[in-house]
Amino acid sequence: MITKLEHCDAEIADHIFSIFQASYKIEAQLIGAANFPPLSRSAADIAQSGSQFYGFSEHASLAAVIEIVLEDYCLDINSLTVSPDYFRRGIASKLIRYVLVNFEYAQAVVETAVRNHPAIKLYKQQGFVEYKRWTPSHGIEKLAMSLRAAP
To answer: Which residue segments constitute the domains of the chain, with CATH numbers given?
Structure first.
């Protein structure tokens, strides 16, 4: 079941934080990053975020979280994390489809590390295409992908 998460609530922010930490530790290993910026985000940062968070729960347990910002008909997927206990069950695809179906947007965008091949494959399966590559100051090469809304 997918529901909106009230991330301003400290307990819910802690749950989101726990999933972020577990998932991002694996992503950092996958891409070979010793210093992975998403791991420095705190539960307080999450609680104070202006983003919207949606969670996929199974058996009353939060299994995955998608974080979005919708502004000027641009749907920005800021993060998508799945608890390692729930990897390879199609949950990430369900969350992406959920936001693509339930929000009005002209363009959806997402960024990920160039070396994060599973994420790139996932977004391509949803119709996203790469449009930019760059290396920010933290040194992890990134790419941006976008999807135009169907007319």
So the answer is: 2-148 (3.40.630.30)
Q: Do the beta carbons of residue 52 and residue 6 sit within 8 Å?
A: no
5 contacts 16 by C-beta, under 8 angstroms: yes
DSSP bridge partners of 55: 3, 65
Q: What are the pLDDT digits (tens) for 106-125? A: 999 999 999 999 999 999 99
Beta-carbon contacts of 53 under 8 Å, excluding residues fewer than 6 positions away, are 4, 5, 7, 16, 46, 65, 66, 67, 68
Give the integer Cα–Cα distance in Å for 121 and 40.
26
68 CB-contact burial (10 Å; exposed 0-12 / middle 13-18 / buried 19+) = buried
pLDDT in tens, 72-98: 999 999 999 999 999 999 999 999 999
